[in-house]
Amino acid sequence: QVQLVESGGGLVQAGGSLRLSCAASGRTFSLDAMGWFRQAPEKEREFVASISAGGGTTYYEDSVKGRFTIARDNAKNTVYLQMNGLKPEDTAVYYCAHRRSWDPSTRYDGYDYWGQGTQVTVSS
């Protein structure tokens, strides 16, 4: 069993920044890849970014490349999503996800545990 708790969401103006955090417990965090997904109203959940267990491999959805950065601190059992240059179309609930594998994935079905989500709202 893995528990994931996200934090750091909020309301920000376009062009602003937020940093999301996801604290994990219940399993050896340093052996498992992690990911971030988001879901806007009336849309399907979509991949945002993922990172390997050791942090050496990262993947990003095309629309966030160059603006978002995923990172992890295995000593703190925490994964982060630094979001810069936010746009109104980034507005969504952001979810942290756990993957029982060293390597990351962009697929929704590659993750077995999910956090409760944190709302990010970007005003124009």
Features:
mainly beta, 11 strands, four-stranded antiparallel β-sheet, seven-stranded mixed β-sheet, 49% strand, globular, 124 residues
Characterise the protein shown here.
This protein is mainly beta and 124 residues long. It has no helices and 11 strands. The chain has strands at residues 3-7, 10-13, 18-25, 33-39, 46-51, 58-60, 68-73, 78-83, 92-99, 113-114, 118-123. Strands 2, 4, 5, 6, 9, 10 and 11 form a 7-stranded mixed beta sheet that branches. Strands 1-3-8-7 form a 4-stranded antiparallel beta sheet, with no helix packed on it. A hairpin with a 6-residue loop joins strand 4 (33-39) and strand 5. The chain is globular. It starts with a strand and ends with a strand.
Write the layout of secondary structure elements.
Blueprint (H helix, E strand, L loop, with lengths): L2 E5 L2 E4 L4 E8 L7 E7 L6 E6 L6 E3 L7 E6 L4 E6 L8 E8 L13 E2 L3 E6 L1
Parallel strand pairs: 2-11
Antiparallel strand pairs: 1-3, 3-8, 4-5, 4-9, 5-6, 7-8, 9-10, 9-11
Termini gap: 40 Å
What's the gyration radius in Å? Answer: 13 Å
Could you say which overall geometry the principal axes of the C-alpha atoms support? globular
- Poorly predicted segments: none
Mean pLDDT comes to 96
